[in-house]
Prior knowledge:
By secondary structure, this protein is mainly alpha-helical. Helix content is 71%, strand content 5%. The protein has 9 helices and 2 strands, in the order ααααββααααα. A hairpin with a 2-residue loop joins strand 1 and strand 2. The longest helix is centred in the last third of the chain and has 24 residues, at 171-194. It is globular and about 55 Å long.
Amino acid sequence: MTDSDSELMLRFAGGDDDAFRQLAARHQRPLVNFFYRLTRDRFTAEDYTQEVFARIIRAKARYRRMAKFRTWMYRIAKNYWIDRCRERAAAPNMGSLSTPIREDEGGSRTLADTVEGESPRPADEVRRQEIGKAIKAAVSRLPEEQRLVFVLSENQGMKYAEISEVMEIPVGTVKSRMHAAVRRLRELLKDVYDGA
């Protein structure tokens, strides 16, 4: 029988480093995916995940079994994400691979598109990729509080009650933000699906 996350965290707080390795193995991929959905950059997502684990290590003595470990971990991740957003808002924009470099007939081109090359693909694959990019772009355009709720629900599979604990807001507010996010995504993606 495997130990629960809370049991592993309590063992880690008591000095069992192997317990932390088990926790990290269980939660690394979901955390990377969480940050990837927010940043759309795999390396950044991995860096952010490592920082969350570092914060968990530093906070091990303060961990209490009052909430599920996963909820506590995602609260740390949410707070770290908000810190990064504040830093980016205060810092000058240096550009990235996703920064548009020119407008084409088919939309904007990015440095990443240029680096990846332009090898031909079957039409279905191209359309699937276009829809995927449109969805990612639309999610990135959501207001921060809606995007966090949407990603936690749709990509991390959390229930509204758990999101409520992570975000430290009432369940009704979670529902309201999710409803607003879905409505906004429908607006943003209307042309994408009308042209399908």
